[in-house]
């Protein structure tokens, strides 16, 4: 693997008296899709929030593009190109589709807003058709498109997708994973955080499996698919 774009070592994090993450090591190389897998409550969202500086780390280190961001402000993290599309989409429901997209370039790539908007519309033609629509009136799948499009407006160097398939129909899930594969083919590094193990491992180069706040398995997707315990726990095989 080439030098890591994101390098997390010994990460500890939690809420109040509860320590959720207990010494997590994760690497993502430039242009790589890495999966972080695990069931509900495993600590995936806590990991994302800590790496994105929305939650303070209690120990360990986080480096991004050669810079130590362990104690950085979340605005500085975004400005460096680490962009997080959160679980549950978190769009602004009372704003229009266009306003939501424009907010994606508020902290980064504002000078390229027009060209990035055209790129998003090429990827998501449906959003171009609905620029004036109030975002909260869109379907769940359309809102997920909007959330990802908003993330792309900031020209991410690494895009963290937190449970993007949650609540989507099987057909939309297929479309979503196809989109992630296309973004990767364009050279974008992606950390895909999912419960949908089978489809995630089809497109990820490597994966980590998080259980009870610790990494239990890591390796190439092929190696993880060959692990009996993983197949039994997540794939029913």
TrEMBL record:
<protein>
    <submittedName>
        <fullName>ABC transporter ATP-binding protein</fullName>
    </submittedName>
</protein>
<dbReference type="GO" id="GO:0005524">
    <property type="term" value="F:ATP binding"/>
</dbReference>
<keyword id="KW-0472">Membrane</keyword>
<keyword id="KW-0029">Amino-acid transport</keyword>
<keyword id="KW-1003">Cell membrane</keyword>
<dbReference type="InterPro" id="IPR017871">
    <property type="entry name" value="ABC_transporter-like_CS"/>
</dbReference>
<dbReference type="InterPro" id="IPR027417">
    <property type="entry name" value="P-loop_NTPase"/>
</dbReference>
<keyword id="KW-0813">Transport</keyword>
<keyword id="KW-0547">Nucleotide-binding</keyword>
<keyword id="KW-0067">ATP-binding</keyword>
<feature type="domain" description="ABC transporter">
    <location>
        <begin position="6"/>
        <end position="237"/>
    </location>
</feature>
<dbReference type="InterPro" id="IPR003593">
    <property type="entry name" value="AAA+_ATPase"/>
</dbReference>
<dbReference type="InterPro" id="IPR003439">
    <property type="entry name" value="ABC_transporter-like_ATP-bd"/>
</dbReference>
<comment type="similarity">
    <text>Belongs to the ABC transporter superfamily.</text>
</comment>
<dbReference type="InterPro" id="IPR052156">
    <property type="entry name" value="BCAA_Transport_ATP-bd_LivF"/>
</dbReference>
<dbReference type="Pfam" id="PF00005">
    <property type="entry name" value="ABC_tran"/>
</dbReference>
